[in-house]
Amino acid sequence: MNMSSGNGQPVIRRLSEQVVNRIAAGEVIERPAAALKELVENAIDSGARRIHVRLDRGGIDRIDVTDDGCGMSPDDLLLAVERHCTSKLRDETLVRISTLGFRGEALPSIGAAARLTVMSRLHNSDSAWAIRVEGGVVGEVEPCAGPPGTRVLVEDMFFATPARRKFLKSPRVESSHAENVVRRLALSAPHIAFRLEFDQRVVLDLPVQDMAARVAAILEAGHADGLLPVEGQRGDLKLSGFICAPSVHRATANGQMLMVNGRPVVDPVLRTAVRVAYRNVMEHGRHAVVALSLDIPPEQVDVNVHPAKTELRYADSAAVRALVIGSLGRALGTGAGVAGVRPDLLQSRGPSSARIWYPSERSADAAGVSARLAAPLDAPGQPDAGLPPGFAESTLPLSALPAARKVVPDGPGQPAADDMTPAIDHPLGAAVAQVLGTYIVSQTADGALVLVDQHAAHERLTHEILRQQYLGGEIRAQRLLLPEVVDLPARQVEALLSFGAALARLGIEIEPFGGTAVLVRTMPALLGKEDPVGMLRDLAEELEADDLANPAQADALDARMDAIIARMACHGSVRAGRKLTHEEMNALLRDMERTPRSGTCSHGRPTWLKLEKADLERMFGRR
User: Fold this and answer.
1) Which is it for the CA torsion 305, 310, 314, 318, positive or negative?
2) Which residues neighbour 91 within 8 Å (Cβ) at sequence distance 6 or greater?
3) Are residues 250 and 283 located together in one domain of the fold?
4) Can you give the residue ranges of the DNA mismatch repair protein S5 domain (predicted)?
5) CB of 149 closer than 8 Å to CB of 122
6) Is the pTM of this model over 0.70?
7) Helices 211-218 and 171-188, packing angle to 10 deg
8) CB 255 within 8 A of CB 243
9) pLDDT digits (tens, 9 = 90+) for 209-229
10) For the chain, what is the mean pLDDT?
């Protein structure tokens, strides 16, 4: 109800300090995880070497954060719970902010919404001091027992604002948010040991580590030496970090740890750049797993956008996007064998839950893309007329190809034995066999088994060759002996014709042929005998369904052209069921190792899986 004067005019009045703090708390402390974030940031800023976090019921009942940082004096404690009091701003320009916290709102906001106790002791002091705030009411500073550093205890979250408390989720959900906060902050400070407990159960226990080890632990990514490193620079902007291969992905973006000047952020500019970088190598609807750190001059970024300090504004967001997309593109441009997926065959799991595998062997040379695959595999005297085109013989001479099996007599009168003497010193090893007419089985030098999906792998190789030819304007068109007429719905005909010029650059020349058909005159020579009808139907359906497909916009066109190339590659690749010789299988493996982005097919599915020797021994009960 509005207060008003006798003439009915509303009266402006000053709100009490308690009400002001509760209003501010609604912005700063939206859930227990938000309060925890502020407390851990304060602990990091204090110079702590170890931070211990304990939560009860996801922080709803209790948050307990202890650090061994610099500590506070009694006078500091009084100021710390007063709004807009901080030790972290050296000037009032809000430009060169080098600490995680700086607004001076966290502790007063928490104290306004919960029961807050802060206990602290300077390292050169003989005693500790404590102050208590309940629902915005500040108590006296009193002596207490405690080690050097600071301990902050938050109890009964939102007891003073019951409307907010009833909107909290279950303890399980709140715990999940809290764990995500600690993981992000722990990643930003590998020089600090972190321990996290939920209801007296240890969830995270990290020692002081280097960044690679901390990233591997936070992302739960296995061996740190297998993560793909990222380095990039554009003017004053520098990007570093580690990423997982595109075959490793998650249903949400929670696996994306992003930092700007050491500050964990949830920034739409960076997330969009990551999505674009992975767009053509990852399954649609899945999210990459990355840990990236951007260093940017303070005057080129504004961190004072939101009380949570996780959103930013950049002076040149286009430069930031270009740096991230370019740096990730280079890191992802490795051949197969660098990082892959190891399936867990001991229990039933969906394809998206495969464990991450990071080998320690040397990376394959990914400098160039193989220029093969132009000629069919059909050998003289062995016609294979009904099959799609495969790939030409390897650029390696046959004598240099790993021999799969060689018969060597064991001695006079002894039967010949199979002597496995392949040149297996390659990331994907040497081919042993083809099973189900679809999968190549190979063995590596360390005794591991590699499984390769021949269609998915060849699809990616064809995709990369077409892509390079398209970018270089070198796709050669092959005129059809008899032009093909493709009947389509009118809307799809319209969509295809609107992209006529772009398709011509891909070697596909079409023209209208009545209201519901197009005439196909040429096809890319690389695709050989591919039937144009099925491919044109698929392309037409995709273009019709894509709201963003606009040939007049360069960005949209580039994105759509890569998707068109992916569809063409799928139609022009070695099919499942195609029998391959050992030389052909090994040539495919070597091409995969040399070809960028060949760890996944054009649709983002993995092209290869690996079973270590230890995995096989566990499956058979040998360890």
Assistant:
1) negative
2) none
3) yes
4) 215-333
5) no
6) no
7) 170
8) no
9) 999 899 989 987 654 446 889
10) 76
Amino acid at 148: P
Run of H or E including 463: helix 454-471
CA distances from 184 to 67, 84, 194, 254 (A): 17, 25, 11, 10
Nearest to 67 by CA among 37, 102, 39: 39
Q: Which of 154, 188, 206 is the last residue of a domain?
A: 206
Pull the structure tokens for residue 496: 């295809």
Per the domain annotation, does 192 fall within a domain?
Answer: yes
Range of the domain at 283: 211-333
Extract the runs of DSSP E, i.e. beta strands, from 112-214: 115-121, 128-134, 137-138, 142-144, 149-155, 193-198, 201-206
Across the range 539-561, mean pLDDT stands at: 60
φ, ψ of residue 26 in degrees (nearest 5): -65, -25
Q: Is 351 exposed, middle or buried (0-12, 13-18, 19+ CB in 10 A)?
A: exposed
User: For residue 348, is it within any domain?
Assistant: no
Q: Where are the beta strands (DSSP E) in 340-382?
A: 340-342, 355-357
**What is the 8-class DSSP label of residue 447?**
S
| C-alpha to C-alpha distance for 565 and 464, rounded to whole angstroms | 9
Same domain, 75 and 35: yes
Work out whether the CA dihedral 371, 376, 379, 380 comes out positive or negative. negative
**What string of DSSP letters covers 502-540?**
HHHHTT-EEEE-STTEEEEEEEEGGGTT--HHHHHHHHH
- The tokens for 582 are 């050992």
pLDDT at 94: 42
For residue 256, list its beta bridge partners: 290
- Tokens 């190792």 appear where? 593
